[in-house]
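Late entry, written up from scratch paper. The run itself happened at the end of the previous shift, but nothing got recorded in the book at the time, so transcribing now.
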Amino acid sequence: MSFSDLFDSGFKKRNEDHFAAIVRVAMDDGIITDEEKAFLDRLARNLDISEADYKTILKDYQSHPINPPTSYDRRLERLFDLSRMVHVDHIKGDHEEVVLRKIAIGLGFSSENVKYVIDKALTLVSNGVDLDTFVEEMKNMNR
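Output as recorded:
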């Protein structure tokens, strides 16, 4: 196996784990709505998740660990994706927000301020901001 194969394999695994974390949020209520399915389909394409892997992850999403990215910007990107999934469900104060907090802690956000981080993230997403604005606003909340 070449070095590039190792890199590709690790990159693919991180994408699958990220996708599984989002599926975990979507499946928290036991169903995937049409809106969630459309979002998952787009995300799977963006993360280069094959159809076979997509189906496998849907069946066994809880077996994938939540691997926190080392970069703060990458953590914010993942938080953006997860917040969009919760927003698609039109949920406020529901169990999925609790799951989102747990996943956010797993992504490396502090347990002391995770509720504030999640509330801010969900507010930004509900206001329809794009990824760049989301990252900028989330970084500014710490200043």
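Residues 15 and 47 are 6 Å apart (CA to CA).
(Scratch paper discarded after transcription.)
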